[in-house]
Write a structure and sequence with these properties.
By secondary structure, the protein is of the alpha/beta class. Helix content is 32%, strand content 25%. Strand 10 and strand 11 form a beta hairpin.
Length: 255
Amino acid sequence: MKAIFLSDAHLKRRSDPGYEQCMQLFARLRGRGVESGRGDEKAIMTDLLVIAGDFFDFWFERGGLIYPEFRPVVERLVQLRQSGIRISLCEGNHDFFLADYFSRKLGIEVYPGEVEFDLDGLRTLVSHGDTVDRENRRYLALRGFLRSPFSYRLQRLLPLRFLWRLARFSSEMSQGMSRDAQERLVEVMHRFAVEKYRKGLDAVILGHCHQAILREERIGGRPRTFALLGDWIIHHSYLIYENGRFTLNRFPSGG
């Protein structure tokens, strides 16, 4: 089995380098039922693609209408699914309420929280990771409000163009985590992974902190894997699982 994991592309504009490179990676992916032809030496055969949140920098949809800049990548995801690749989307702190469009209209799996995959017998947990730090109560309260039925109903009432404009403005004004905050979150996430190991998990894969890290460790007498997926803003990173082994790659190399 072969699976690919990525997160935090924060797609906004088709002209952004991260968007273009993400599209280039997806152009290489092939389902097992698709034959590779000439000039296809860089094709990556895969069974499963997992996007672990904040793939889009914002998401609002109404009646099948989506932000125009997102159409190319969404169309590519549909093509990948039709080629036989199983696609799973985990919601992030930037993109949620995804099920209305991706699950109900496109038949793509959407998970609002943690999801567990069986990778050749390896119990593997995947989540965006924004709820791991339970001490950040202010953020957790804000997250709860934004995902509440009230917020859902409110955003369904506002004009889409206004929501897209507001989201773009908010995105341009927002600031990322400081280096110290990222390093602290890495350790919080690792402690979270160790707790999951005690419950029988073999691998824990998270996004959110924009750090690209792969730790192979032996805990409880068994090999375990802790992975942070990085992003497509700086790292252009993705994780590959194949034949019992995880590797962290950076585009355009790897595969």
